[in-house]
Amino acid sequence: MAVEPIKIAVIGDGGVGKSACTIRFVKNQFHEQYDPTIEQTYSTTVETEEFGSLPVEIIDTAGQDDYENFRSVSISYGQAFLLVFAITSHKTFEKMESMLVEAKEDAPKIVIGNKSDLSADRKVSVAEVEAWCKERGFKYFETSAKNNINVREAFVDLVQQAAKKRQHTRT
Ligand code: GDP
Ligand code: MG
User: Fold this and answer.
1) Is pLDDT of 71 > 70?
2) CATH number at residue 80
3) Which DSSP string corresponds to 69-113?
4) Ligand 1 centroid vs 12 CA: distance in angstroms?
5) Does some domain include residue 22?
6) How far is CA 23 from CA 17, 44, 57, 100, 127, in A?
7) Mean pLDDT score across all residues of the chain
8) ipTM for the whole complex
9) Is residue 150 within 6 Å of ligand 1 at its C-beta?
10) What integer is the mean pLDDT of 15-39?
């Protein structure tokens, strides 16, 4: 029997690098520009020690200023959520709070502080994010889609959390 794919929704403010992280993970590429209005789904496979080879579907969300659109997509699609902000913009960090309201409450979530290559322009301290994540039980990864740092680690961790949760739900 074919295994159902694990569905991940990538959410966060515009311009934080949702598409860049997704494309880095799925294709190992980085594009300086990616259409900010395109919402796209990607299929890939993740190898895990515990669960073997797992099919994964990722929706790279877009157009989240359109609240209704964001709402319907994230709620109906995601079984696990990657919350992305950019360490160079405090506003994008603050935005996660309101996005969280729309994500399924009991779904696994991971927080990504992207653009770590721009640390000279950092506006969000690691301590601040870690405190926020600790309160909510989320793991935190600082990533650079551009320099290929930590992106795979974050996605794989989330896939494993989702696979574990699925296993528990079934038995
Ligand atoms: P989205 O709106 O969240 O999907 O953001 P995009 O993936 O389209 O990225 C927005 C902009 O940030 C683009 O110009 C990217 O090239 C740039 N960007 C994305 N990730 C990184 C990163 O890790 N480092 C740097 N320096 N720029 C990035
Ligand atoms: Mg995008």
Assistant:
1) no
2) 3.40.50.300
3) HHHHHHHHH-SEEEEEEETT-HHHHHHHHHHHHHS-TTS-EEEEE
4) 12
5) yes
6) 10, 11, 13, 23, 28
7) 91
8) 0.99
9) no
10) 94
Between the CA of 9 and the centroid of ligand 1 the distance, in Å, is 17
34 C-alpha to ligand 2 centroid (Å):
6
Domain membership of residue 131 as a residue range: 6-167
Residue 83 lies in a domain: yes
- CB within 5 A of ion ligand 2: which residues? 18-19, 62
* pTM summary value: 0.94
- Whether residue 145 is predicted with pLDDT greater than 90 in this model: the reply is yes
Please check whether residue 1 lies inside any domain of the structure: no
Q: Note whether residue 23 is domain-resident.
A: yes
How many structural domains are present in the chain? 1
* Nearest CA residue ID for atom 6, ligand 1: 17
| Atom 24 of ligand 1, residue of closest alpha carbon | 115
Cα-Cα end-to-end distance for the chain: 17
